[in-house]
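Our preliminary data section would be incomplete without showing what the modeling component actually yields. Below, a chain of 714 amino acids is followed by its predicted structure, encoded as tokens that our downstream tools consume directly.
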Amino acid sequence: MQSIGDEILRTNLKRPKRKNATNISNNSNQGRGAAAGYTRTVIVLAMTVSSMKFLFGGWEKKVTSTIQLRTGEFHMETAASFPLQDTTSDSWAKNSFPESGDEGRPKDEAEKEEATTNEEKYFHYRSNSSSSSSVCDRLEAALDLSKWAPVRYHKDRSPETSYLNSVVNSLFFDSFKEEDDAARSTIAEFNRIQKSDDPVLTKSLLDVGFTTGGDYSALRFAERVVTSNSTDKPLQIAVFGNSFTIGSNCGESTVHKSHDCAWPNRLARRWTELFSPSSTGGGKEETNAKAPLPEVAVDWHMWQENTQGSVNIAQKLPAFIESFRSKDVTPDAILLDNSVSDSQHEPWFEAIVRVLLQTYPGVLIVSIVDAMPKLLRLPYNDYEWLRSVQQHYELAAVDLPEMYRVLRNESSDGAATTQQDRLWPQASYMVSASGEKQYDPGIIGEAYWANFVPRVRKTVVANYPDNHPPWPTHQYVADTVAHALLRTASRGCFLMGKIQQQKQLIPRLLPKNTVASKEKVDACPICLDPLSRIDAKAPQPPSLDSNSSIVNVVCGDWKWVTDDRNRAGWQSDEPGSLIRFRVRVSATTPLIAMTYMASYATFGDFRVTFRTSDKGPLMGCGDISNNSTTLPYLQLGGRLTEYSLSKTITFPSQRNPYSQYAWELLNATVLSQKKEKQEMKNDSVADYDDVDLYVENIVTHGRKRVKIEMITTC
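Predicted structure:
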């Protein structure tokens, strides 16, 4: 079954170790060398929390009331079977996070190296359980990509009747026959390449692009794989990502739905092909193919969204956690494909990783790095912060830029290869049938991705062909991630054998130290138990009907809008227009986060202020600007040099150099007012307070559009 939003679709050789990760913030004087290539154990957090807490990227700060973590919802049956370590002990610092060098190696490091060297033996583990044996025994064969089924044209997979009412996009094709002929030709060439002596995806290339995560997460994932051969206990796999992950510019034809074309749905189909009892495992031409893997049911939770970075994921975590809690399940794997939207200067990626590991101890997290030109052009060290986070928290990682470099720069004999792109197109333009360069927007007629093999024709109106590649790239990513999940399960099968031999696997607790500085991580607060959440993408967003409503248009043209990419929000194009959002915040430690749209075109600046319930409301257009000498406000920019992206600003209750101006506004309008009121009345504060957030559209450089997408408060 399938839905969008909380969308559900049911259905090792390691690369060479990198240099030791740098810039680890050693706040507790523990854990040095955590990222020095040791990946024996995975992070697990066992805790009992009775008080309310803020999570600043996983750092606990006890306060009067904010977030309550309920240990009963952690589903820690597996974790409870292993001894846990004390994060405050010296032994934890020395053994869990060994220093680099032989003298700091764990006592069983030699065993680990032997197992890594002979990792092929992982696949020969046989469990005493018939169910695990039937799955584990087949994983070795499943990892052979030459046996995987070829890609089928989406119209051949789905009944033709589903496209009877569709109309071919005349911008690119004159008829369905022309479109179908072009699509089937490209698909045939794609399949030919993968079955040739020089395929794009090979075992050696996948070894380069995949880094194993911690052993404990592999063990847990394998345990769930072998027990998920029933729809009663399906695997739970969640996907986060951005415009690439939702399938922008992806379509085998002009009527192909983008979400069906995108790699997450291709991954789901590949999994079904590999595990379905009716599958041959290798396509019709594989007459001698081995039997398929036993059925392993999966619920795919699709949370990808246009322009989504880690800061946007952070605002969705409350809804994400509640969606699993309401179904009484926990995620077994979380796939994060949002690297292009993140930055080392604002470590939201590390913040969400800490919260996910804290909420779901031992979950398998796969960090996917896309091969977009932005990442490939950076010097390797400029993106080392992301690899440091992956290593520090023992995440599994898929490194597509590394795979691209190998494909582009060397062949099997080490000689330079052709300069054609095979994995991910890098050109920012497309080419016509005659080879002339064409740029978005405005491309019409017969156009192809430049310098890319196989030759793929444009079918969708979308910009940035290098950031939004064609369907073959999505298929390569889907198959790479599928291979990573299978390899992780294979490793876990071996570990189950070790545990049966009384060789216990010790889980690791969530590190107190961080990759980014503590101050930077503190500047990325995540509200897990919000007092208010106003989301324009909600099934029923708040109305604009009355003066007492949660969202009220004070003056001007504010309205709720959306588009074909579900970029919903409250939008204004008229300068001076004023809108009010009424939110509930903690009376002692309020936190307000607001997400808005920024873009290279149309969008401009706006002003924000807060009013407590004892202050008179703003009543007219331009009231913030007209009272700028007496009314504190903060002006935010909606202009970017390129792309259209969602941005989030947080207004914290604690001063932080990375949120200085936001804190100053909240302090001047809310915190100080509350303190004065308390001193005057000499009484205690309530648990919460109602605050009005006002947004005013202003004219800047001819740009006058503003869109507010979400507000979350604690």
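The chain has a mean pLDDT of 77. Residues 7-157+210-389+471-518 form one domain. Preliminary results of this kind motivate Aim 1 of the renewal.
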